[in-house]
Amino acid sequence: MNKIASLTPEFVDAIPAKIESGKLYISMEFATAVHSCACGCGMEVVTPFTPTDWNLTFDGVSVSLAPSIGNWSFPCRSHYWVRRNQIQWAGDWSDEEIAAGRASDKRNKDRQFAGSASNRQTATQATNTSIWARIKRWFSS
To answer: What global pTM score does this model have?
Structure first.
């Protein structure tokens, strides 16, 4: 596998049928970016833009994504940052660190949708449904 050193941003209306290595496809309409894993394994990485997921910064030339991308569910378990189009590799995480990170993500989502338990669940379900509905529409475009 050949690691990717950088990603070239490409703003699109719909995801292309073939994801090219080294490109970061960005849909502002669907608030999502997609790219081929920077490790070279070929897995597609989807990063939705929400207050509790990823943020995209575009300076007119380059893009950055925050936080880091940890592909813990992929066989490669790659972990990296996208900063000014460049891939900056981060260290691997232990299973305990991954579990702690996921728990932190859940707490952040719970805080984002504060209120009664039923409101949090409804808001979280609505957000997840909304994000995935947008992503599915994007893929089917």
So the answer is: 0.78
Residues 119, 72: Cα–Cα separation, whole Å: 29
Domain residue limits, the chain: 8-140
Alpha-carbon span 79 to 136, nearest angstrom: 25
Top mean pLDDT of 84-88, 115-119, 126-130 is at 84-88
Region 22-31: mean pLDDT is: 95
Cα separation of 13 and 42, whole Å?
A: 22
Residue 113 has φ and ψ, to the nearest 5°, of -110, 45
Q: Give the chain's end-to-end CA distance (angstroms, integer).
A: 30
Mean pLDDT of 7-16: 93
- Whole-number Å distance between alpha carbons of 77 and 130: 27
